[in-house]
Design a protein that fits this description.
Helix content: 25-40%
CATH class of the largest domain: Alpha Beta
Family: Belongs to the phosphofructokinase type A (PFKA) family.
Structural class: alpha/beta
Distance between the termini: 74 Å
Bound molecules: adenosine-5'-diphosphate, 1,6-di-O-phosphono-beta-D-fructofuranose, magnesium ion
Number of strands: 13
Largest sheet: 7 strands, mixed
Catalytic activity: beta-D-fructose 6-phosphate + ATP = beta-D-fructose 1,6-bisphosphate + ADP + H(+)
Protein name: 6-phosphofructokinase
Function: Catalyzes the phosphorylation of D-fructose 6-phosphate to fructose 1,6-bisphosphate by ATP, the first committing step of glycolysis.
GO molecular function, one term: 6-phosphofructokinase activity
CATH topology of the largest domain: Rossmann fold
Mean pLDDT: 95
CATH architecture of the largest domain: 3-Layer(aba) Sandwich
Shape: elongated
Order of helices and strands: EHEHEHHEHEHEHEHEEEHEHHEEHHH
């Protein structure tokens, strides 16, 4: 009987547990299951949970629960730690290792495979994708992103209504999204926009440097035409002459954020209007109230299919999504080599999607589940009080 170790690593999502449940339900009859707690740290420090009946039942009760029920986290997985991880897996008698995670997780998984080869251990490794940033390479998208995109788009649509209602008091809102070096999430903020007066009016993505003149031009035009302006900025955006803003470095990884505050200060100074910046918050990645039904279904399938492929002998691959047709979305999965995923690095928003947002929205819509209810246009009566803006 195979012995399968399973862990989750990196930032959690609203649907990462669905992938775990899909996998566990697929392998539990034929394999012994060993859960790894707290990401790669659990492999090194032997935070294992035996997959007995009660534990399996507890894990599978998380199918619709956000977070990462095994514990995830970020951990300095050094070469020494990797050697220890493989030694521990050997000690446990595990012959297969699954990790559910993003680009960092896949890189670590391949390192574990290479170390196992060094130690003469036969270890199958399989990666199951998750990301809210959609920066994972060699796949059309990954579970977690659709829900996060829906969350951001709905938030921005509603924030427009909030700000429009208050425009005699506050005129500009700057909303900062997650995404690290990739603009997929920030760019998704416009997918539910139905009327020109609705926000977002300006979106800044990390793939392009932020031009002060252009920002000012668009914000002024929105204030002039609609009386208010909504700006969306991805946490990884740099000014044309600036660097990425790092709030901290933890285990060698930068915690990004703060560009929205700088934009707030800039626009206040330039326009002498009331401006508020806001971080959309950590629930972008794991909020359960905005889960996309498509994303939830796909997350489970990724786990199920990964389990099936392991039974058929797959090794050092990640389960990935392919899209064959743009206009008729059908979920299709295929194995890709971990080396290829890693080789691609952090995948940014393609320039054709930046230049043509409608083509991006067409690509994105199938991943959002039910989408959003339609709102009527904002008030047609223009009673604005910003003579300063011309
Ligand atoms: N280059 C690497 N070498 C070894 N381990 C890594 C590497 N990158 C990431 N990891 C491990 O994988 C974990 C998950 O990666 P991280 O980048 O945090 O999230 P994600 O997998 O979502 O991109 C890290 O916390 C770390 O333990
Ligand atoms: O504060 P942290 O640890 O950087 O977490 C926030 C980050 O986590 C993420 O949600 C996801 O990161 P990973 O998928 O790479 O783990 C990023 O978008 C965001 O930058
Ligand atoms: Mg990552």
């Amino acid at each position: 009987m195979k012995k399968v170790a399973i862990g989750q690593a990196g930032g959690p999502t609203a649907v990462i547990n669905a992938t775990l449940v899909g996998l566990v339900e697929t392998v539990q009859d034929e394999c012994e299951v060993l859960f790894v707690q707290n990401g790669y740290e659990g492999l090194v420090n032997e935070h294992f949970l035996t997959g007995d009946e009660a534990t399996i039942q507890w894990v599978t009760s998380h199918r619709h629960v956000p977070g990462a029920c095994l514990g995830s986290g970020r951990y300095a997985f050094t070469d020494e730690a990797i050697t220890q991880a493989v030694t521990n897996l050997k000690k446990q008698g595990a012959d297969t290792l699954f990790f559910i995670g993003g680009n960092g997780t896949m890189e670590a998984l391949l390192k574990v495979k290479q170390e196992a080869i060094q130690q003469g251990m036969e270890l199958t490794v399989i990666g199951l994708p998750k990301t809210v940033d959609n920066d994972l390479g060699s796949t059309d998208h990954a579970p977690g992103f659709g829900s996060a995109a829906h969350y951001v788009a709905q938030y921005v649509k509603d924030a427009s209504r909030d700000l429009h209602a208050m425009k005699n008091f506050e005129q500009i809102r700057v909303l900062e999204t997650m995404g690290r070096n990739a603009g997929w999430l920030a760019a998704a903020s416009g997918v539910y926009k139905e009327h020109p007066e609705e926000g977002p009016h300006f979106i800044a993505v990390p793939e392009q440097k932020l031009d002060r003149k252009e920002l000012l031009r668009v914000v002024k035009a929105a204030i002039r035409d609609y009386g208010y302006a909504v700006v969306v900025v991805s946490e990884g955006v740099k000014w044309e002459d600036g660097e990425q803003i790092e709030r901290a470095v933890v285990h060698g990884r930068a915690v990004l954020g703060g560009i929205s505050e700088e934009i707030e200060a800039f626009l206040k100074e330039e326009l002498q209007l009331s401006v508020r910046s806001e971080l959309l918050g950590m629930n972008q990645r794991a909020g359960s109230q905005e889960v996309s039904t498509q994303d939830q279904m796909e997350a489970y399938e990724v786990g199920r299919v990964g389990g099936e492929w392991a039974k058929e002998g797959a090794d050092h691959i990640m389960v990935s999504f392919v899209r064959e047709q743009m206009d008729d979305y059908e979920m299709k999965l295929k194995p890709v080599k971990l080396e290829d995923v890693i080789h691609e690095g952090e995948r940014g928003l393609p320039s054709q999607f930046i230049e043509n947002p409608e083509s991006y929205y067409a690509w994105l819509r199938p991943l959002l589940g039910g989408g959003t209810p339609s709102y009527p246009p904002l008030s047609q009566r223009r009673v604005y009080n910003h003579e300063k803006i011309n």
